[in-house]
Amino acid sequence: MSGTAQIGVTGLAVMGRNLARNFARGGLTVAVHNRTYARTRALVERFGDEGRFVAAESAEEFVAALERPRRLVVMVQAGEPTDAVIDEFAPLLESGDVVVDGGNAHFADTRRRERQLRKRGLHFVGAGISGGEEGALHGPSIMPGGSPESYAALGPLLERIAAKAPDGTPCVAHVGPDGAGHFVKMVHNGIEYADMQLIAEAYHLLREVAGYPPARIAETFRAWNAGRLDSYLMEITAEVLAHTDAATGEPFVDVVADRAGQKGTGRWTVQLALDLGVPVPGIAEAVFARSLSGHAALREASRGLPGPAVKPLDEFEAARFAEQVERALYASKIVSYTQGFDQIRAGGEAYGWAVDLGAVASLWRAGCIIRAAFLDRIRGAYAARPGLVGLLADEGFAAEIGAAQDDWRAVVAAGALRGVPTPGFSAALSYYDTLRAPRLPAALVQGQRDFFGAHTYRRTDRPGTFHTLWADGRGEVEV
Question: Can you tell me the distance from the alpha carbon of 133 to that of 326, in angstroms, rounded to the nearest whole number?
Fold first, then answer.
């Protein structure tokens, strides 16, 4: 089996298995390996007619099956299992070989692994892969980070299996050095959290304020998905809302516990945003909303707290409100993407990555969970103005959000007046208002900090750093 496979996949759970099948369907010879050989054998027996597989029982056989430079994709659980696999295979590889981590690794771990393997002369690629098991099989969005040399060896193979955007462009490109790929994938997931929360809030408002049942909201979302809100998440949300539970005959959404789980990438996004000093309140509120939904005891103890007394809307008022929710949802989604792209920009500056934000938007146009029609416009905005400070500085998006703002405010106000929580919508609107405000109360905060801690402040009328001698009334000193 010496040197016959162009790429190898080790770790054949659902994602790894489907990725290997995708490579094989793309005309590549694929070496496959798993810690338990039975899973390797089962893959070849069941899917061997889809392409050329080389089943390897041992790590040595697996490495021997790969042509040079060897390209080895690791698809195991993030953390210690990934380190264990790398430690197993690295001694068997030679200078110039490429190790790819396709899992949801923390980008800091990817940076560490890249440094360690570089000392051995090996290339390490942290590749964010989005699209779930279906994407892995039929075409994911792929965000590889690593050396340019590693992408030269790996890129043509990834382009074969990546999702294709509407214009035919493969949704894969070299993102940047070391951990850039996994960082961008992390932010992708953070935006995903925010996007899901906003859609859920739109559903909640239509149900609690407009009085629409789930089936009608599904119809509404399908109509919205045919317009500017066209996205994968809108599409699947309509399917979920239209689904009826087979056991009870009730709407599926009514028999599911209202406690949302999370795997951690959204939390990482918020933690890193704090470290970088980048405001991502929409993503943060989405993470907190999931956390709060799971605090069953706290929610139960607070169930009897008073709320507003409201009357239902009539059919005309409900239809008008639904139109307002559509505009509020669109504006809030744009704000969430704005925050995510700003975090990628800040990460690139902090870690020395020259990340092309337009290229990132291009990668997300197909295959990934947050794929949406307006991503092509985002790509165009950054392509036209590479130094664009933020999406809200783009004239097209700014005009659309400005036109939506009255309805956006009305929706947030309706939620507050009727006791329907809208943390995502509210945070997005507050972010928008903060950016456009000519002056913020941060000036008062600076005064407070100087009073109790002598933290100093700057003035608007002259340069320098100052401190007021609050205790003895001796005025102001420049420090």
Answer: 30
